[in-house]
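Deviation from plan, reported transparently: zinc ion complex.
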Amino acid sequence: RGAKAGGGGGAAAGLRWVIVGDDDGGKLFTPEQYEEYKRKMLPIRLQNRLYVSWRSPTGMDCKLVGPETQCFCTHRYKQHKTDYEEIPKDRPICVPCQVSRCPCKSYHYVPLNGTQPIRCRCKHFADQHSAAPGFSCNSCSKCSGFHSCFTCGCGQPTYAHETVVETKQERLAQGKPVGQDVPYAAMGGLTGFSSLAEGYMRLDDSRVGAPSAEFLESPSSSMDHPFLKAFQGPSSSAQASSQLTGGSSAAKQVSNLRSSEEDDMAYFEKQYQERKKAKAKLHQNTKQSQKEKTQ
Ligand SMILES: [Zn+2]
Ligand SMILES: [Zn+2]
Ligand SMILES: [Zn+2]
Ligand SMILES: [Zn+2]
Ligand SMILES: [Zn+2]
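Because the crystal trials were delayed, the predicted structure below was used instead.
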């Protein structure tokens, strides 16, 4: 077995991160643990993916939540519980934060005003409020819970929107896009290139992807998915994420993280092409030796 335990440089760590997320507790899995993890988690992930979006009363998804999208608790979506061996029967489905001591009971999107946090009607910023249910203000006593009139691009106020967590079947039943099945952690509502634009700017609503059995056999085969080529969000490398856990300094770091994400994506592409070549070669060799055997 040729794989190295540490996975080497930042790009390899980035790839691992996209698949493993926080599930290795910050320690790198050994190659055996990594394989075991993939065997167990990827089928679950492909089947039980939860789609998270921020929905306007008009029914439009104004924001599709991705791995890096911040929650009201200031942590990223990927820091929440996003993998379920069995999808909960109760609705709404709760996606609690997994950062220790964070009181967030379920992912809750809150928009930004450009790059600035929005204000509550009590005049305090979103992050001055408790992430515990009720979202009470930590800075005043007159607030009855976070409530913002900030107007979304759809024309509706923030308070009229809701964070929706739903299954693939539930989305399909409403004619909403689900994209292709991907093995990556915390993909949330991202369903392809069009997901990266705000909902009201979206042009494409027909990205229903057929589930691919090949993913189970060879997870890396999804690396050529347009999603990866299009994905331009802030970095997902393990190191960057642990720096971001603090939350408030996140915005400042986003710009320098962006380039490492592009590196990750370039890595996926390269890795995929190499694997494809290796697979083709292996296939040929196998054929060759079978031929020789039968002769
Ligand atoms: Zn949190
Ligand atoms: Zn949260
Ligand atoms: Zn308030
Ligand atoms: Zn307040
Ligand atoms: Zn909206």
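Helices lie at 10-20, 31-47, 168-173, 214-217, 226-230, 238-244, 250-294. We consider this an acceptable substitute for the interim report.
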